[in-house]
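Contributing new complexes? Match this layout with glutamic acid.
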Amino acid sequence: MTVTRFAPSPTGRLHVGNIRTALHNWLWARKQDGRFLLRIDDTDAERSEERFVEAIRADLAWLGLEPDGEVRQSQRFDLYEARFTELVAAGRLYPAYESAQELDLKRKIQLGRGLPPVYDRAALALNDADRAKLEGEGVRPHWRFRLDHDAPIEWDDLIRGAQRFDPATMSDPVVRRADGSWLYMLPSAIDDIDMGVTHVVRGEDHVSNTALQLQMFAAMGAPPPAFAHEALLIGAEGKLSKRLGSLGVDHFREAGIEPQAVRALLARIGTSDPVEPIAYAAPLVAGFDFARFGRAPARFDEGELAQVNARILHQLAYESVADRLPKGMGAVEWEAVRPNLSTVADAAEWWQVIEGPIAATPAAEDADYLRIAARVAGEIDWAGDPWHALTSALKAETGRKGRTLFLPLRRALTGLDHGPDMAALLPLIGRERASARLGAMARN
Ligand code: GLU
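Output block (do not edit by hand):
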């Protein structure tokens, strides 16, 4: 069974970049009838905050990306400890005693000599006596994973294709600090094995981590998951933008953006498929395929999001928005005004137009025409299609047509030059209010 995981660190709110990663993990799991798990990467107790864990859950719920299960790294230290002991016994983890300053100096010297700043493995040369001496002096070791230099590290990335790294060009990664705390790399590999993760979908900033983690999977005797590294997100202006890091669910919600629009856009940008206003999950799930993803950065444009949002709103059923509409507004009213909305909140303006009072500006040149209209409005059959009844009677009586026939009526009835189809709106305004509005204009 396919298992994906979304693994945020609860050190802040989700932003559009990690929302996109969550979405792709969710889409892939749904497409494969698999499981989508949330893993809270909270090994860093200093920087992790409970309010962010709660916000991550709430944001995923708003987006409709509810996980099939949740795992917290902070509750799994026993497992990490057990694997750690095994890897130490197998000689794949070794203690290293250099201070941050010493390591920094080593790197500077290497760079100065034109060499890559790869860790020199000095700690591997220490014998028991050397280590005992250092520990006697109170130096506590951090721990490194010993890379196997014998063969290149290779995998077939679902997005990037064939990948190849030479382990000899990489430093043995530090997996545990001197104070016993964990860095991200090893716990993540341990969890991916333990959680049965089959696909790791994440940003391309993790590509070199994957090379290291592949050796960790091998060292723990586990087959690795498949990897899909997606190109990063850039802003509409074509740059890695700081702003993207602050755009999250709160911002979208305040801007009147529907979760469906966020999903529709983020499912498709950076792929060879067009962005389409797909309101429901099924077509996005069915069309999701790593093979469609490109290597170029995906461009996130808030203007495009607003457009997708409007086009999605125009399809949304009354039931899915009812609790956010003005009190009293029903399905018929929603369907009449929906084509003119950019956000659900805009519905209130049209509800005001229906219910009144409206502020219409009288136009002297139309007073006679509107006087006739007020009378005709009293004569037509309101049960059927009053707008067509009204306009065809007026056309016959006054000889007006096109704009001069329709616009004065729209202005008198709604106070506006534009808006929803009058055929849908007029029955909602109703005979009484319509006659009063026409009559009021006619008197001027
Ligand atoms: N917590 C890591 C991050 O947010 C997870 C990376 C991964 O998906 O493995 O970068």
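Reviewers usually confirm one structural detail per submission. For this one: The first helix runs from residue 16 to 31.
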